[in-house]
Description:
Layout: H1 7-13, H2 22-40, H3 44-48, H4 60-68, H5 76-97, H6 100-119, H7 129-141, H8 150-166, H9 175-194
Amino acid sequence: MFFLCNNRDMRKNSFRIYMNAPITIGFAAICILALCLSYLTDDKSTALIFSTYHSSLLDPLTYIRLICHVFGHVSINHLVSNMLYILLLGPMLEEKYHDRLITVILFTALVTGIIHNIVQPNVMLLGASGVVFAFILLASITGRENGIPVTLILVAILWLGQEFYGMTARDNVSQITHIIGGLSGAILGMIFKKR
């Protein structure tokens, strides 16, 4: 049996893929490209551009690394664990905050990079986890009413408790970056909400 329908009806029912969050997808794409470049250069690109550590203030790459460290990742597992959160939270935040999401990413990268270089100058920092935690707390603040939402308080208590507990573990996770990233998201969220 065949059904006849006009083009307008076909377009309405057709399946299509569309770009719902260009900033989020662009961020994820840069992270993927940075990891591929790292594999191709035997981690030299990561050390040169996609990580931050104490280096001369006269070196122009020092300033580039303060931002670009959020694009670098150690492995595919590291990348995927961060990108799951970015791709989950990013579209919702991008719908609410539009281009200001770029400000959140850049501000978080810069602040976490600077503080890391001061507090742990001999340790290399890379990864998007600071941005992930900025997104988590920013998502907790997102709402219609003024004031501090209960979800932000609950997320902050659980999350800060986990991060402070994590500081006692000997691992390669930078809890300081998580805390600073989360605080960056919370502060920017409160500023955005007032505007």
